[in-house]
């Protein structure tokens, strides 16, 4: 059995070597994984996966390390970042797209330097998965428990040979059930899945050959399925439209978010009973699936936050502004956002949340180039939720010229339009960035640089003055003219 | 001749400019006050549409702004009056929506992207400023500019008008009062000058009024009445003929362009008076013409006879037509103004509306305060110098006070005339007591020729109109010159100037006046104080009584801070976001417009109560037992039933309190199936507690209101805070409906109508079968109740 | 023996039949004799409302005895009588299928007890329980006449009852001569006192008084009292009270009081405006001004106080 295995393996490796299918310089012999540890932090609508690769340079001729994500994994992954263990600044990560003979999506990580032969480094690959979990049972009565299922591959695949790897799955609360994979005799001889508290550990699995290939995916890859309890709201922002409007006259940055929120936990079975809801609130037995309020951390130093929906102001919220002072950039303004009604499983709530912030906090004028630089945060995360489709619109002051945009990560589309607002004559240049499946890691800042000639600043006052003056002239004329036919 | 106080000498043109400038400033300040005092609602709550009807107007305006006028014109709304639908374009007065639509488009044309909601919310305050201006113009025609200013300030803050024009009460009255006053102003102007031009303007504004408010009938009858009275007083002039004819012809033709009015102006009795007077005027004019040419006495008598005869004939014809049915008799709402019993008996819906109730004196005083005490004085002063326009005011005063007495909402038409009359009175008082001249000593009395000079003074910046009593001797050249320079002063300023400029104005003055400073100070101080009191009163009334949008309720926390109760919007928004687009909601008609506006769902009945039967259907469904109601609900594919329930926090405007009207209206259609007495206890009391009649306890309304309410008290005695009664310990149960949503304070309760049972059983049977399981599921709840009881 | 018993067996129902026949004819006679109204006792009531009745009946349950102090009973009695009378004019073939009867509490307290009535008057209509006049919906139990919707006046009553009678009750309200008479009188007086009337009609102050008077009455809530039919004063505990409690309510007397107050204020205002300046001497003017200002202030404070009574939450006051 094993013998046969080795033969096939060897054949396959040869074929790989012969076929120069590799996009980059290195090849599957240039590294090997001494150890891979994957930790899966189960959550509501977000699942954070941290994979630590302890790698050893075999040939020492390249600094390109390749990580592979299987089709399924890649489908749910919406954020990926690689760092060296112990450091914070991310390494360069280049997606190579889907490669058929690897049956995986490949990413090439560029190490800081070309490692010498035999040198070991440990890489940390962080991914955030969305839509990786689903409620099961799909609907539960009011006050019922909230159970989710998470499904994933058992083994971390890699184009390199792996000597040992294990997977830890940590649930937020109790874990109801998990699959114990069978038929892994090739890699292990112990019981392969052990539960300790709310942690399930798979592995260790030893000396795994280069696993990023269709053959392995068929033969040895296993799916694992974990059924666990989740005691916080499962929130999804179905649609986010953020508009940031810059005003130099008011030295004000207005940010307005139109948000459609949905409780994507198990849908409510039967109907909502206020009585039970009140009792649950009363006895602190509130179940996770009825979301009464959504805590939000708004930027520091903002003023006049407003929160309304299609039929007017929503008066049921608490806002605590950040203490102003030197260290205010560190703190946040806290908003306890209460929907009009508790958000039960499957219910929607759409609203508008906006605020004004002093422009000086987020914009500065570069005297040398004579350009303004402004930073607009991509979005203000709602804890434990992600955005399915996001649209960020940045409205620059009227008459702004040669505009350049530097988004923190690649948006799907970038469009430029003209936005006419109060007392505009020519309209204001605006940039619209769209994106899908934004997680709480996508909190980068969009930097925009632009020039505003001095005359453009004067546009409004001149226009207003002209209008007023013309009114006076008209009045003057009207007063003088005498329409009577015969005096 | 002595002065009470010496005056500085100023050049007349300086005075002229100063006065006009002052007048402009005063008017703008008044407008500011008028607008500001209507913003309490926005400040205390938010910029929101109030009450019920405004929500429809707002919705219609949104359609107008979004789709343009023609779309709006033939807008058929399938979601209202489900399943009948409603032809909106033809069943509304589009003036209001058109107005705000135009404003909206202009603003957007100027790149001022104001939200349509704010346009609607602030329309009423804006127009109140215009109303103040129109009242100023009107009163100026009656007395003079100073009286006009006073009248403007009165109408600006009078609660009687504010009550229907605070920010957010986006209703027809918001613009109608301005149109009313301006039409009257132009009518008076036309009558004075005998100008067809002003007559036409009056007609145009009359048309606008017709397009804006059903109350246009008031104008339609006021102006003819005025003309008629003038005829009877033998005051026929060509000016009257020109003014009336131009107004009637143009006005009527244009008013028929409004689809909702159509041919009413020639078909219904409300409009017959105008037509009759028109005919009469033609006859009189003709006879006048003839008389001016033919001299013979017999012919005149003959003519007079013929005149009377034809007049009677015309009346007879109209009566005949009415009897034959060619002319529709008076419509219900209008008729109920005369025969006050009518509505109560035959149109309970009209009688059920609170604003159609008669007015008790406290609300008169509440709305007009000190004005109502001096408004008769103003009318008397109108009698004193009885020019044509004064006749108008007198008639207006009498009619309006009758109507205001019959219907609360018509207080609105009384307020302007009260303000005008009171202003005339007040300004006369101030003229008398602020005039610095002291009369000659008694010895030299009645030596000076008396020439009453009225109208605006020259220094007022407008032309002089001198009317002298018929046989009065034409004053000497000198006197004329004197008048031309400075006629009897309009305001104290003007008078001082007239004196200061040293003209012979003295000679034209009447030899009466006030001696000394003392009396002057006392009276002026007293009335200034009274007016200040009025201002304080108005502010208080406005802020406390008239500035709450009944959509959002507010209560006071123990610490005195304001606590907002927002149940309506909570429930409506829930409906909007979490129910299918086409889910029909059944509720009592009061909430129809709000549901359509805020929840955006089809409704069975709404505040446009055009179909009595449909409303009665809802009433029947509410009043009868579940078994009876269920087929009705299914037949109208209702999927949600919405009831308003105040017992938890003591909100008295809830459905149980309106229930009797539902029963009455249902009984009107189905006397055998719904009978009012069966909802009373044998002792004839209206009760919801243990002794409630079985019909009451089984009615859908009762069940849906109190469903599971008793459990909230966890074993203690449940209490109805509105009716102050103890409820049964065991609440009602539901078989054909199930609770779908209940707002935070239980004010709004929404029930889903169950579908057919899977096994095709009757739902009641199915329920009783499921009982077993239900009880098991219910147990934890029971335990909680026990805890609560401890 | 046997034969007898058999005979009796046959006879019993016969007697019943006979008794019912007699009762029926009795009712007809009673109605005819007493202007269409049958005066009932408990027994006759049971007969009239027997479960096998082929006729329908409208029965007034009332308490006219002075001991009961039932004002509405006395109020309603005449209209019932008139309508019954009107019914008795109908052709016999219709008339004898529907009876109007009245049962006084004195004559049949049991009936009241049985029906669980502890107030009066009540009017129940018993539809026919047998024969061809049984209502379509088959409901034969008594239908109460609803006084809450329609009033005690005979017109609405006859309309209400006509739903149950074989043919519509031919009730015609008596032509009201009052307006006609008064009109005639007015015309006569005018034509006779032409000399007197004409100057009056031509005098503006006559009209002034007229219009001011009417509008004063109207703004004092006259129409409210008339429409709601409120009493002049309420016979409350401890003597008659003339101020109706509550903001949206008032009694007849309040109209007069308020109108009077308004009148005084108006008059004092007018005298300040018009009459004072005519006074030739300074002293008299000062005096007059003092008086009228005083009157204004005092009366207005009274008005405010009155208003506070009606509207508890009103915060302001002038003198007291």
Automatic annotation (TrEMBL), chain A:
Pathway where it operates: Protein modification; protein glycosylation
Chain segments annotated as transmembrane: 461-478
Membrane association type: Single-pass type I membrane protein
InterPro entries per the UniProt record, alphabetical: Ribophorin_I
A Pfam family of this chain: Ribophorin_I
Localization, UniProt: Endoplasmic reticulum membrane
Family assignment from sequence similarity: Belongs to the OST1 family.
Function: Subunit of the oligosaccharyl transferase (OST) complex that catalyzes the initial transfer of a defined glycan (Glc(3)Man(9)GlcNAc(2) in eukaryotes) from the lipid carrier dolichol-pyrophosphate to an asparagine residue within an Asn-X-Ser/Thr consensus motif in nascent polypeptide chains, the first step in protein N-glycosylation. N-glycosylation occurs cotranslationally and the complex associates with the Sec61 complex at the channel-forming translocon complex that mediates protein translocation across the endoplasmic reticulum (ER). All subunits are required for a maximal enzyme activity.
Descriptive protein name: Dolichyl-diphosphooligosaccharide--protein glycosyltransferase subunit 1
Source species of the chain: Sistotremastrum suecicum HHB10207 ss-3
UniProtKB/TrEMBL annotation, chain B:
Subcellular localization, as worded in the UniProt entry: Endoplasmic reticulum membrane
Topology relative to the membrane: Multi-pass membrane protein
Entry coiled-coil feature ranges: none
Catalysed reaction, written as an equation: a di-trans,poly-cis-dolichyl diphosphooligosaccharide + L-asparaginyl-[protein] = N(4)-(oligosaccharide-(1->4)-N-acetyl-beta-D-glucosaminyl-(1->4)-N-acetyl-beta-D-glucosaminyl)-L-asparaginyl-[protein] + a di-trans,poly-cis-dolichyl diphosphate + H(+)
One cellular component (GO) term of this entry: oligosaccharyltransferase complex
Domain of life, per lineage: Eukaryota
Domain Oligosaccharyl transferase STT3 N-terminal: 22-421
Required cofactor names: Mn(2+); Mg(2+)
Gene3D superfamilies in alphabetical order: 3.40.50.12610
Residue ranges of every copy of the AglB-like core domain listed in the record: 574-643
TM helices/strands, residue ranges: 21-43, 87-107, 119-139, 145-162, 174-190, 240-260, 272-290, 302-327, 364-383, 390-408, 521-540
The keyword Endoplasmic reticulum appears for this protein: yes
Record carries keyword Protein biosynthesis: no
Pfam families: AglB_core-like (PF22627), STT3 (PF02516)
GO molecular function ontology, one term from the record: metal ion binding
Involved pathway(s): Protein modification; protein glycosylation
Keywords linked to the UniProt accession: Endoplasmic reticulum, Glycoprotein, Glycosyltransferase, Magnesium, Manganese, Membrane, Metal-binding, Transferase, Transmembrane, Transmembrane helix
GO aspect biological process, one term: protein N-linked glycosylation via asparagine
Documented EC number(s): 2.4.99.18
Family indicated by similarity: Belongs to the STT3 family.
PANTHER family: DOLICHYL-DIPHOSPHOOLIGOSACCHARIDE--PROTEIN GLYCOSYLTRANSFERASE SUBUNIT, DOLICHYL-DIPHOSPHOOLIGOSACCHARIDE--PROTEIN GLYCOSYLTRANSFERASE SUBUNIT STT3B
Function description: Catalytic subunit of the oligosaccharyl transferase (OST) complex that catalyzes the initial transfer of a defined glycan (Glc(3)Man(9)GlcNAc(2) in eukaryotes) from the lipid carrier dolichol-pyrophosphate to an asparagine residue within an Asn-X-Ser/Thr consensus motif in nascent polypeptide chains, the first step in protein N-glycosylation. N-glycosylation occurs cotranslationally and the complex associates with the Sec61 complex at the channel-forming translocon complex that mediates protein translocation across the endoplasmic reticulum (ER).
The protein's name in its UniProt record: Dolichyl-diphosphooligosaccharide--protein glycosyltransferase subunit STT3
UniProtKB/TrEMBL annotation, chain C:
Alphabetized Pfam families for the sequence: OST3_OST6
Chain segments annotated as transmembrane: 180-198, 205-225, 255-275, 287-307
Membrane association type: Multi-pass membrane protein
Annotated compartments: Endoplasmic reticulum membrane
SUPFAM superfamilies from the UniProt entry: Thioredoxin-like
Keyword Magnesium: no
GO BP term (any one): protein N-linked glycosylation via asparagine
GO CC aspect terms: oligosaccharyltransferase complex
Coiled-coil parts of chain: none
InterPro entries: OligosaccharylTrfase_OST3/OST6, Thioredoxin-like_sf
Domain of life: Eukaryota
Keywords linked to the UniProt accession: Endoplasmic reticulum, Membrane, Signal, Transmembrane, Transmembrane helix
Predominant place of localization: endoplasmic reticulum
Signal peptide range in chain numbering: 1-17
Protein purpose: Subunit of the oligosaccharyl transferase (OST) complex that catalyzes the initial transfer of a defined glycan (Glc(3)Man(9)GlcNAc(2) in eukaryotes) from the lipid carrier dolichol-pyrophosphate to an asparagine residue within an Asn-X-Ser/Thr consensus motif in nascent polypeptide chains, the first step in protein N-glycosylation. N-glycosylation occurs cotranslationally and the complex associates with the Sec61 complex at the channel-forming translocon complex that mediates protein translocation across the endoplasmic reticulum (ER). All subunits are required for a maximal enzyme activity.
Family designation: Belongs to the OST3/OST6 family.
PANTHER family according to UniProt: DOLICHYL-DIPHOSPHOOLIGOSACCHARIDE--PROTEIN GLYCOSYLTRANSFERASE-RELATED (PTHR12692), GH11935P (PTHR12692:SF0)
Record's protein name: Oligosaccharyl transferase subunit OST3/OST6 family
Protein source organism: Sistotremastrum suecicum HHB10207 ss-3
